[in-house]
Amino acid sequence: MNLTTDRRRYLALLTEQLEHLDASCEGFDQGRQSECKRLASTARVVCRQTDNSTSLLTHLGAADDIAMVDSAPSAPGPLPAGSLYMSTGVVVIRGSTTGVDWMPRCRVEANYPYSDRPLAQWLYEMPAITPLFGEKPTRWDIVNWLANKDGGSHVGKLPQRYTNLLDPRAMGVTVSVNGLTLLGSPFPSAMRQIGEELRVSLRRHFADEL
User: Where would I find the beta strands (DSSP E) of 52-200?
Assistant: First the structure.
């Protein structure tokens, strides 16, 4: 394949970003939850297209045709009147001898089902986590909050939508012992799963060039 100088550079940068994703995913899995903020910053570089900045996927000409892995379970068909469907999206609850907490789906289910989505739909439209109360944040909401507000790349005032969901009751699930709530924020594990979806999608799409 005869590659232009620009494309070689962008592919080299993509390789770097994949290395960042891999290192942060590994670090998160070893217990460093703060890696979720590095994952958010990397996802922003790869995916976020604005009037003032060009995403790496746009530079590579892939923004319109890459298929992104969406691991959040789809809602079932029409439900009976008065029934309630509940899904926690890209995170699941796992209990062990050390406690109960949110986990990225990839750490609990070895072969979880997924759907393929266009990038814009995956990033900006599909809910990543599905609280029982309040708005359902998209992947971009989570990336933006962690990267641009909560220390990934910048520090700023946290929006109310973010702080509301730090209360586990918003997810419709509480686990407590002697009045002590055991479930923490779903955002770190959600970002870990988004990072997993991203690196799998990138390696699949660019398999012939990396």
Answer: 67-70, 91-96, 99-104, 115-118, 176-177, 180-181
| Contact present, 37 and 151 (Cβ < 8 Å) | yes
3-state secondary structure of 208: coil
- Strand pairing of 91-96 and 99-104? antiparallel
**Hey, how many other C-beta atoms are within 10 angstroms of the C-beta on 100?**
17
β-strand partners of 117: 68
Report yes or no: 91 and 129 within 8 Å, Cβ to Cβ.
yes
Q: How far apart are CA 104 and CA 171, in angstroms?
A: 15
* Residue 176: φ, ψ to 5°: -145, 155
Its pTM stands at 0.88
pLDDT in tens, 21-35: 999 999 999 999 999
Beta strands in 28-87 (DSSP E): 67-70
| Residue located via tokens 């918003």 | 170
